[in-house]
Amino acid sequence: MVSAVESSASSGMEKEGTSSLTKRDHNALEAELPEYTPGGAFETAGLETHYEPIDSYEGKHRYDPAFKWTENEEDKIVRKIDKRICSWVCLMFFALQLDRGNISQALSDNMLKDLHVNTNDYNTGQTIFYLCFLLAEVPSQLISKRVGGFIPDCILYLSYYYKSAELPKRLSWFWTAYQATQIVSAFLAFGILRLRGRNGMAGWQWLFALEGMITGLIGIASYFYLPPSPTQTASKLRGKDGWFNEREEKIMVNRVLRDDPSKGDMHNRQALTFGMFWECVTDYHMWPIYLIGLSWMIPNNPATSYLTLQLKANGFGTFRTNLLTIPAYVLFIIGLLFWTWISEKINQRFLVGLASQIWALPLLIALEFIPGSTSAWTKWALSTLLVGSPYVHAILVSTTSRNAGSVRLRTVASAFYNMCVQTSSIIGSNIYREHDKPMYRTGNKLFYVHVNKKRAAVWDAMTHEQRDTYLSTTKDRGNKRLDFRFAH
């Protein structure tokens, strides 16, 4: 019976973007479907009404705590979201980094010499860039929450479509696209930099012009392509019926809300008030993650920023230098996917994050103490291993999103975490100037374990009636609620 029902559901969804099932079909289908309500608050019988989304929530018309669907249906929809939403968001990040990160290839084409500046001037320029990034991060995030938005916005946007356990894997693809840019741009630079002298332009000028044009075109296309939410996909470009039929929209909305009911607390275009913003700033539960963001990338930041300059200094030519950067980023991508998978497999995030520090330490020691006469290939191998060290950014970003506990905090926390990461880039971009040893900091896992245990002790001691009273009367919100558990 189940297979027949699933077959019926599949045939009803063969045509993307059409409401092929009538209301009678829906009712008949739901009556025969085995109930599939994966983990979340809605498994707590009798308390569903406490998790109902606000009236202005864009998916409220699809909300139904009694709605049933099969696991096979959900898997098909997740694959569809991966194809239509996640893949394009990854393309956007690829385009962003193509234009933003090509300065590394430009350095290999004697850009500093052409501009009559030195490495210290380059460091100052990098610092100015990151400072501007920091100053604009929170304001742009607050504005984009109202008008639509980039990195923190993309994370928030993906959280509308994916459950908490699904997000780390998608974010690993997100940053894979980011680093794949380094591989693709190395090959592009190998050809584009040969245009030096054409129309009186240096090779690095051609690089900025052509790759900037690609970024601009993808950005314009993204504005028209991406829908505001799972239930708002209809448009001239995406079709008058949108990408998903009514049943698919109900599955998308209810599966996400059952995983995290706080996603129904705000409309996706609702702006944050100053009071909401200040509440997010003073949420000390998120501070440990911000501190980790400030410190964990410092050990390998200098090697990443100066890889092409190091290779040039070791005697490699412009074109060989660009090709020699590729293995580092291939290793980076493999490590990113592997460590993100491991963290979810063993359900540990901060402990897995230690891998990047443990990996980097012996390599930094080797680069510090090897004699100057060491082979250029040995130095290249050490630098490649350092740049390709375990990248736990996707793990930490998804943990920030998961531990936020509300849309308003998720909006600000993503921006604050990213600000801390960019601050670490400022530190990293000035390390070689002062010859400072990198700083290493780990952890804060114990903080979240302690809070979870305290809350579990209180929650488990409550009767069903006491829990119902608490949920009806509590003023606690987001990650302050007794029934919220932090990921760690």
Characterization of the model:
The chain crosses the membrane at residues 173-193, 205-226, 321-342, 348-370. It is a single chain. With 488 residues, the protein is mainly alpha-helical. It has a single domain, classed as MFS general substrate transporter like domains (Growth Hormone, Chain: A, Up-down Bundle), CATH 1.20.1250. It has helices at 2-12, 23-32, 71-100, 103-107, 111-114, 119-147, 151-159, 167-192, 203-225, 246-259, 274-281, 287-295, 301-305, 307-313, 318-324, 326-345, 350-369, 376-387, 393-404, 407-429, 431-434, 445-461, 464-473. The longest helix has 30 residues, at 71-100.
Q: Spans with pLDDT under 50 lasting ≥5 residues? A: 1-21, 433-448
User: What string, H for helix and E for strand, traces the elements in order?
Assistant: HHHHHHHHHHHHHHHHHHHHHHH
Strand content: under 5%
Say how many strands there are: 0
Using only C-alpha atoms, the radius of gyration works out to 25 Å
The overall pLDDT, averaged over residues, is 72
The level 1 CATH classification is Mainly Alpha
- The CATH superfamily is identified as MFS general substrate transporter like domains
Q: Name the shape in a single word.
A: globular
Largest sheet entry:
none
- At CATH level 3, the topology is Growth Hormone, Chain: A
Distance between the termini: 41 Å
What is the total number of structural domains?
1
In the CATH hierarchy, the architecture is Up-down Bundle
Fraction of residues in helices?
55-70%
Q: Total helix count?
A: 23
Structural class, please? mainly alpha
